[in-house]
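stuck on this one:
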Amino acid sequence: MNTLLIKAAADLIFRAMQTHRTPAGIAMALDAAGMLQSPETAAEAERLRARVAELEQQTAAVRVLHAKYPDSEHCTQDDEQWPCLTLCALGAAGSASLWQRVTDALNALVAAGIPVHVEPDGHISNPAADEHIEWDRAAGRWRLVHDDEPQLTAEQAEARRRDYRARMRAAGGDIP
């Protein structure tokens, strides 16, 4: 049982009842908030939560290995200048800010010698320009796009957006 989701749903129902909504209106509010999920979506969300927990444990273990020597500015694991590329990629060099983690990830690409191009329209691409990070207006989020990838229909993009927002709410994350 996910008490955070139950509390959020109860709160939404309470607010909807205060506006004298019908049961159908309350159900529509739950759906709009991404709280009505198919069993498949719920199972996938649970699988993803378990995977996130596993990755967080692995990340914590890597952070312990990649500590700074007390008497120098180098990493104890790989002797690179601290914070090393591994920590920069993890965003673990003392940065709690999401923007700092994004900056660290971009700097890790530069440090690894991977060229990055910022296009005039604002998307970021690799040197071959066959892979891009671009804003998907229909989905309402950034995503990695490959040139050989089929385009989503508006319905598919909306379903992905709602599913993403539901996962973010369930995980307690910020919703863009």
Remarks:
- The chain has a mean pLDDT of 76.
- DSSP finds six helices and four strands in the chain.
- Strands lie at 117-118, 124-125, 131-136, 141-146.
